[in-house]
Design goal:
Mean pLDDT: 84
Radius of gyration: 15 Å
Number of helices: 0
Largest sheet: 5 strands, antiparallel
Structural class: mainly beta
Order of helices and strands: EEEEE
Distance between the termini: 26 Å
Low-confidence stretches: none
Amino acid sequence: AGQGDEGIQTAEDARFYQISAKMDEFSNEKTPLVLQFAVKHEQSIDCGGGYVKILPSGTNQEDFNGDSDYNIMFGPDICGSTRRVHVIFNYNGQNHLLEKEI
């Protein structure tokens, strides 16, 4: 594991978990943005996922929750037999779901 690598292990089914880490404000204009993470579902789940959210600068981490604003959200999504990578971009307050298969 690299410096600063952390994880979260969840134990209770049908519950939301969240952690956050502050990053310096940045721009990736004219440069690809690459963000990678791994999710390991050790138990069999019927419906759920594990997502990363890139939050706007100035987000109050003490109030961070599932309804907090985000710029990008992505991660594996499982519901019944459907398994996909969920990708949503937020632009001007509107969510835009990426419709293609990844």
